[in-house]
Please model this.
Amino acid sequence: MHRRHPEIDPQLLSETDEQRQLRTVLRDLYAEASGVEEVRKHLATPRGYDEALWARLAGEIGVHGLAIPEEYGGSGFTFAELAVVLEESGRALYCAPLLPTVVLAANALVLSGDRTACERYLPRIADGTLTATVAGFGPDGPGRPGGSDQSREPAVTAEQGSDGWVLRGRADFVLDGAGADLLLVRAGTPAGPRIFACEPAPDTCRRTPRRVLDETRRQALVEFLGAPATAVGAAEEAEGTVSATLDTGRAALAAEQVGGSGHALDATVAFVAQRRQFGRPIGSFQAVKHRLADVLVALEAARSGSAYATACAAIASPQLPVAACAAAVVCSETFRLATAEYVQLHGGIGFTWEHPAHLYVRRARAAEVLFGTADQHRTRLAGLVGLASRPAA
Model:
């Protein structure tokens, strides 16, 4: 059972000068190269994002390697710096596969402790030349509904043949599953689940893009037809690696949601200040002020939850599962509220598909269930802190 009032250094919850500078650089870059019209344009391309900007983020700023150890080609910073990137990416609705590649796959490799796999893949993730994702880490995808993260047997199995391991089975709704260069797969073996690295080839790995609500975050059905794979990490550590990876992913998603909520609030405040009705700005009406105040209060709570989850992920705190669940609940609900008001308070223009609000609404609704629903997180959180509900008498 986790402590209800865990101790953590308050300084970890504050932004450093370096992090503020990183935020400024990223916000300027996204404003220049990744506006809403650029996002819409690149959604129509085969890969779904601006590959030139992806290379700039990796090469000029070093985004991809921020939290990767220096021995594997990274910068050796912590998840706290990466969270700044994710928040600004969420604010700009950046549509490249940062979450699956830089957060999920990179963390799974580091947490596995497999030096061979880390030396092979992490330098290429850090320099932006390799995209990666995870498959089968949850019941139907990365932490999807269906119970705890490993509550079911893996849908993918691994068989050991004369030439090594091969994978069979399928994983659905895999983030960037149709385009990733590397798949880290949780697969069942006779000795229990393990993690495998698979570099997909068309003849042994069929990848079918799924039609999803949020087109800025592509997902796919991945079918393994005897795909060659290499075991990553020790078998007895696999489930712990999967759980820690998903909790880090929840903390990352929370940071993204805070950024998106911040954009929605700022854009709405700017609009109601200049939109006039009855001879005065609509933002001067009390009812509008109250609605925006509710969003601001929720956003401040989300920032706190995200900051705590980020701090726990940065120091690999044993409180990360608690912090990640709490952040997932408060940040997803805040993002949903902020985007709903984004549409409503823009009035008729907010209901048009051409307005950027709809892209943020879709991102908010899809992110709500990406690593489990709010109710599932509350149930898990209650169990973690010893408050699980008792059966009815």
The chain has three domains: 10-131, 156-234, 239-385. The chain is about 50% helix and 15% strand. Confidence is low (pLDDT under 50) at residues 144-148.
